[in-house]
TrEMBL record:
The protein's name in its UniProt record: 8-amino-7-oxononanoate synthase
Entry-linked SUPFAM superfamilies: PLP-dependent transferases
Native organism: Enhygromyxa salina
Keyword Mitochondrion appears in the UniProt entry: no
MF term (GO), any: transferase activity
Biological classification of the source: Bacteria, Pseudomonadati, Myxococcota, Polyangia, Nannocystales
Length: 398
């Protein structure tokens, strides 16, 4: 039986109308967003409409998202918040294991990196604290800080906080690899901030799995960041995020971070998969995949430099290679032309990036065949040339 569709109420109708106008305006500015609806996905290969494409825009840097490990059968759900009765042995075990492997006293597992970043800052920062935040920080960090009572100060991209400014606690919120630019802060600056008595909130979303035997950029620092956020949906190919800190801080987060307190515990189905990915990444298979990844990154960076004269890419010791286009419409056109040739690269536009910062955010994976990287580079260079974008910058200066 077809369910009855209720007629819209005047309020619902008015809301639809308001959004119709807003969406129309977005379309006029080439700012509309739509999920691309891939089908028949096999790793980086899938169909978009009637085209077979290869993705150069996923965060599956090590090709682990397709892993299907034989996993012990787990209950589907945690059935409640961790603080009620959703706290399971598998949660506690994996938190302990991850914290130990990262050299932290404790870790708290959140359902996603976004939720961790939105939930943790407000639980820790108080009025009188000063939070420095990089201009290009991820939306989740921006929103998380907005929910806190601290005074916020936006830094220029890659700028380090001033040495000493009076505050109860001086926090530095930053990503170790910026999701849209592929560069990152100098580790020495992070160490200096910590050495001078400040706290560091470091998001390792695009570094975990890739550096220091998979332990991320923080593992290369002299001091431990105060808070380390380790999202698992990128190189680990899973979902969820660990927040690592001291025992004291983690105990506080468990009791006070609203995005942890008022949400159902992470599904136990996911835990063996996270454990499997962590094990792979830390072992010889992780080394093998990282080697493939960096070989592909180097190849693409060299080809784009040589054939399209793209400057600045050598500064990116990451699999994220942005090609700055500037104009929204042109970024969309380039993305569509790449699609015609079988390559999927989403055009990234404001508000994800600053005004006039529209770009192709190209990401490389260990799962790309070297010949595929080569063919992609050839097509991209040809299109950039056609659009007069050869010799463009790969950097968006703030
Ligand atoms: C820097 C950064 N932090 C956090 C997140 C959110 O992580 P998740 O996808 O697990 O919600 C992202 C994802 O885009 C990110 O790029």
């Amino acid at each position: 039986m077809t369910p009855r569709v209720s007629p819209p109420s005047p309020g619902n109708h008015a809301l639809d109308e308001r959004l119709r106008v807003a969406l129309e305006r977005e379309r006029e500015q080439a700012l509309e967003r739509r999920c691309p609806a891939p089908t028949e996905r096999r790793g980086l290969h899938y169909r978009l409409g009637d085209r077979e494409v290869v993705s150069f825009c996923s965060n599956d840097y090590l090709g682990l998202a397709e892993e299907r490990p034989p996993a012990p059968l787990q209950p589907s759900g945690a059935a409640a918040s961790r603080l009620v009765c959703g706290d399971m042995q598998v949660h506690r075990d994996i938190e302990h294991r991850f914290a130990t492997s990262m050299g932290f006293e404790d870790a708290v597992l959140f359902p996603s990196g976004f939720q961790a970043n939105v939930g943790v800052p407000a639980s820790l920062l108080q009025a009188g604290d000063l939070a420095y935040s990089d201009a290009l920080n991820h939306a989740s960090l921006i929103d998380g800080l907005r929910l806190s009572s601290a005074t916020r100060r936006i830094l220029g991209h890659l700028e380090a906080p001033p040495r000493a400014e009076p505050a109860a606690v001086r926090w530095w919120f930053v990503e170790s690899v910026f999701s849209m630019d592929g560069d990152g802060p100098a580790l020495a600056d992070l160490d200096t901030h910590l050495a001078l008595g400040g706290c560091v909130y470091l998001d390792e979303a695009h570094a975990l799995g890739l550096y220091a035997n998979g332990r991320g950029r923080a593992a290369q620092m002299s001091h431990r960041p105060t808070i380390l956020v380790a999202p698992l949906g990128k190189a680990l190919g899973c979902a969820g995020a660990f927040v690592c800190a001291s025992s004291q801080v983690c105990a506080w987060i468990r009791g006070h971070a609203r995005a942890f307190v008022f949400t159902t515990g992470v599904s136990p189905v996911l835990i063996p998969r996270i454990a499997h990915a962590l094990e792979l990444v830390a072992g010889p298979e992780g080394d093998r995949r990282r080697e493939l990844l960096w070989r592909n990154v180097e190849a693409l960076r060299t080809l784009l430099g040589e054939r399209a004269g793209l400057g600045g890419l050598e500064r990116h010791a990451s699999p994220i290679l942005p090609v700055l286009v500037g104009d929204n419409r042109r970024a969309l056109a380039l993305s569509a032309e790449l699609l015609d040739r079988g390559w999927h690269v989403q055009a990234i536009r404001p508000p994800t990036v600053p005004e006039d910062g529209a770009r192709l955010r190209i990401t490389v994976s260990a799962a790309h065949e070297p010949q595929t990287v080569e063919r992609f580079a050839r097509d991209l260079c040809e299109l950039l040339d056609r659009h007069g974008l050869a010799s463009a910058s790969s950097r968006c200066e703030p």
